[in-house]
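Second attempt. The first submission of Succinate dehydrogenase hydrophobic membrane anchor subunit had a stray character pasted in from the spreadsheet, which I only caught after the job came back as garbage. Lesson logged: always re-copy from the clean sequence file. Corrected sequence (130 aa) follows.
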Amino acid sequence: MRETIITRDMVANPKTHYGDAKASTRHFVTQRVTGLVNVVFLGFLLFIVVRLAGQDRADMVAVIGNPIVGIIFSVLIAVVAVHMRNGMRDTLEDYFSGRMYRLVMLLNTLFCLIVGFVAIGSVLKIVFWG
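This time the job returned cleanly.
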């Protein structure tokens, strides 16, 4: 596979096209939507944290063990994992290219999947097994 080298002249000329416009737009929209959802869920998270302040483990398990709260937390974790992956992608794009870029993107995706699955699994364990 041959890589195209992007020069300063190509970037300065608005008539040249490089990159994948649809993927970039999807990434931009996904980052903004997940950020907005995170802000909305932050209110719920703060409510739960304040509600559980000073409580013992049994009270925490009772609150998080509620299926509705568990589902909301699971959705929150999934959205945060997607947002984290996209945010790290933005940073990694600035520092890597070529084969190393593909490797760090793969590692970034795997890390976010592992964190998301472990966190969602932990919440579901509390919901179903206490």
